[in-house]
Amino acid sequence: MSVLVYIEVRDGAAKKASLEALSEGKRLAAALGGSVSAVIAGKGVDGAVEAAKNCGADQVFVADSDALASYVPEGSLAAVVDAAKQADAKVVIAAATSQGRDLAPRVAAKMGVMLMPDVTAVSESGGQVQVTRPVYAGKVYMTLKTKSLPVVITTRPNTFDLAESAGAGARVDLDVSFEAKAKVVEVKAAASGKLDVAEADRIVTGGRGMKEPENFKLIEELADTLGAAVGATRAVVDAGWRPHSEQVGQTGKTVGPSLYVAVGVSGAVQHLAGMRTSKVIVAINKDADAPIFKIADYGIVGDALEVVPKLNEALKG
Fold it and tell me: According to CATH, what is the number of the domain 202-316?
């Protein structure tokens, strides 16, 4: 039973979240007794093709053209549907990034199949696919099982282990035709060297407990020491202290790093929905009754402005 995984590309390289999805697709395909294929749409994607092979793809479908240099929903849709047909895919997987969340519903609608979004676990059950996904802002986890296949799934980034397991990686070039409804005229990249909070393995997030925007320099210093990305709560972003690209939560980015440090973050349910799947959570808050402590693995009750500099000094020493 074939599994197809969409590999998102940025500057010719495969995104980590997509390779995690491919690794999980490989495990699922093995449980279903089938093979796993990857599909890539872009321009100059040889590096991404090699990355897909190294993560176990038995076959890599490639749509490489100037028209796909930037993400074009109609182009990627055509590539995925064509690849799914050729591979006779019963499961199509994409990472639940902003691009994956845009593309996956289109694929499901085009194929006329069910969509299971933002899943945190995938397994085989009686020849069908079983997934776990958070609902009600992460307060509850729901387990769902398909009654029929095919199905389209999106996987939460930083939730699944990335495993290198070289596959046959036979390349199949696609010749897709599509009519784009919009044209990308400019892409403004984030500041050079700045970690994307959605892909970071370590994150230090600041909340209103930092009191004023100038104090976020403490968050940045701690993040530098830990090799982490800087995150922010919605209240901080709404106040104009930090850019929306750093926002973690239900209306921001969903993350699942190996280490999440919440500094001056109370732990509103909307914020928890975006980070509660983090593997280790450290909370620093002067309010001992703050909700964040209910899900934290380690907690420090104290003024963040006093605790963070001492913590940073200890980590450096």
Answer: 3.40.50.1220
Report how far apart, in Å, the C-alpha atoms of 98 and of each of 15, 56, 163 are: 12, 24, 23
Apex 162 CA angle, 104 and 136, nearest 5: 50
Q: Which one, of 128, 196, 190, 123, lies nearest residue 155 by Cα?
A: 123
What pLDDT, in 10s, does the model give residues 103-136?
A: 999 999 999 999 999 999 999 999 999 999 988 8
Token pair belonging to 97: 């990034």
Asked if residues 244 and 252 have their Cβ atoms less than 8 Å apart, the reply is yes
Q: Taking a C-beta distance cutoff of 8 angstroms, is the pair 298, 276 a contact?
A: no
Dihedral angle over CA of 301, 227, 10, 86, nearest 10: -70
Residue-level length of the chain: 317
What is the CATH number that goes with domain 2-173?
A: 3.40.50.620
